[in-house]
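BUG: 3D viewer hangs when loading the predicted structure for this chain

Environment: internal workstation, default settings.
Expected: structure renders.
Actual: progress bar stalls at 90%.

Input used:
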Amino acid sequence: LDRVRAMAGLRARAKVISENSFPVGVGLASSASGFAALSLAASRAAGLKLSQRELSILARFGSGSACRSIPGGFTEWTAGTSSEDSFAKQIAPPEHWELRDVIAIVSRAHKRVGSTEGHSLAPTSHLHQARVASVADRLAQAKTALLERDLATLGRIMEEDAVSMHAVMMTSRPPIYYWLPGSIRLIHKVQNWRAEGLEVYFTFDAGPNIHLICQAADQAEVERRLKDIEGVLEVIVSGPGPGARVIEP
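Structure tokens produced before the viewer hung:
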């Protein structure tokens, strides 16, 4: 808010009420949606008319991943060389590909180690540099697979990246273990389902809850199977969205 006030030349105070439609602090990127919403709402309330790029940069100051929640559809966060050219942009609109993110909640407990602390510990892992060195190549492959609607390739890259990220966290000093028995159980389930012909892939944020990515046509079957598994507390389904927007009361 101080940054928005400085941009608008205001000194007024503000009351912020933020709500999420999904569990907070459990590895579902609630900070991304929260700071994207705050950036848009605060800038509009202050009378600013920021471009999508400017909004993305503003949101990034609250949470890095929030910059990706400003544009709609499938987005890419460009690293840039400074604060002014590190922002997210759309690489394909929501209707480009009817993918579904079927999220299995195995824990609603607030994670003990937040993402900010996890980021600061990452360089202490002997795997960190190898992960960083492989990011550009993995991103290029993922982008191509996304544009070509190649779920087999995109899914493989997502799984490799998720496991790589958690391997860094598990080998940091001190180590961070986000996965729970339910997380591991579902990884094995996904591998078995693929062997049976169901095209579904897993990924994780910094938390125990698993994201299962599939085509829209397979969503109902993935949901059905998840709901039959002991330890799955809730199933949430999402898809490519329109980006941050103001909803009139």
